[in-house]
Amino acid sequence: GAEQREKQYRAHRGFGDRRGGVISARTYFYADEAKCDQHMETFLRCIDASGGSSEDGFSAIKLTALGRPQFLLQFSEVLVKWRRFFHQMAAEQGQAGRAALEMKLEAEKLQEALANLGIATKGESQHWFTGENLGMSGTVDLLDWNSLIDSRTKLSKLLLVPNMQTGQLEPLLSRFTEEEDLQMKRMLQRMDVLAKRATEKGVRLMVDAEQSYFQPAISRLTLEMQRRFNQDRAIIEAYDNVTVDVELSRREGWHFGTKLVRGAYMEQERERAAQIGYEDPINPTYEKTNEMYHRCLDYILEEIKHSRKANVMVASHNEDTVKFTLCRMMELGIHPSEKKVYFGQLLGMCDQITFPLGE
């Protein structure tokens, strides 16, 4: 069913070499499972080195180094379609235009809609919304909805969603072959090994954001790791749709961590979108990028002020962004000694910002 896949999430021969147009980020390529194990061993050595050289160290990993990128493409498409389906139903209940977390579907109406679409009978869908924290309020929000796609429930194997263009129902998850299923499990096992070692060594693990077409899967997998390992402090860090993820951490009581970056894959992303024919995922202007970056950053700084259960790394050589962060830290009463806000710069780049920060 590859030809039924959305353009953005199809493997594309012309962009098989993901380094084209990327000058500021390392890219890994899948050779075989043994190569992925080698990458994991390298990351383990980095974690050990970081743990041995500083009290509060970081180590960065890339998920495309730990498994087959096609799995990340497929899983990303599933997550995007599933979320889009929620927004479609919210619009039908008169909630179009609301912020993601303000959309609340009435469980009763939702069950009727699923039955009318032929996705699940009322009886079948009833038990989906009666979990520990699900549907107690009689409404279902995006976090409740997302939690239905969960490795523990296996619901994703059964689910169908309507294709907006054709009106036909399509399987949400392409059937994985047995080999693909094994590759996926091995990728998750490697992540687990790295997170456990990082916890033992007291090192924070930063999961790099990568190309937009891998990112929904990377964010979701990283979020699952945060839920498991960030009970006492932020060990796992990543960037996703910040407001939704922060809200999940509040509800479940774990520490949220994120590293905010901008622009690493811009030229390549634009070229791929234009050639394959899907919407350009990049902000239209430099100013819009800054605006989004600062809005996300400010949201996390406010969360640090209110709960002290969040951490952020400002990974930027942008002088205005650094000044903005320092200014907001002073206003919100966040002191550097609390170790809640970090700054990341590449060695030898913009030393005129890095050295004053160090002081």
TrEMBL record:
Domain of life according to the entry: Eukaryota
Cofactor: FAD
Classification lineage: Eukaryota, Metazoa, Chordata, Craniata, Vertebrata
Pathway where it operates: Amino-acid degradation; L-proline degradation into L-glutamate; L-glutamate from L-proline: step 1/2
Biological role stated in the UniProt entry: Converts proline to delta-1-pyrroline-5-carboxylate.
Keywords annotated in UniProt: FAD, Flavoprotein, Oxidoreductase, Proline metabolism
UniProt keyword Membrane present: no
Pfam families per UniProt: Pro_dh
Protein biosynthesis listed as a keyword: no
Reactions performed catalytically: L-proline + a quinone = (S)-1-pyrroline-5-carboxylate + a quinol + H(+)
A biological process term (GO) from this entry: L-proline catabolic process to L-glutamate
Protein name: Proline dehydrogenase
GO MF entries: FAD binding; proline dehydrogenase activity
EC code: 1.5.5.2
Gene Ontology annotations for the cellular component aspect, listed alphabetically: mitochondrion
Signal peptide (UniProt feature, chain positions): none
Top EC class of this enzyme: oxidoreductase
Organism of derivation: Cariama cristata (Red-legged seriema)
Similarity field: Belongs to the proline oxidase family.
Domain Proline dehydrogenase: 123-357
Gene3D superfamilies named in the record: 3.20.20.220
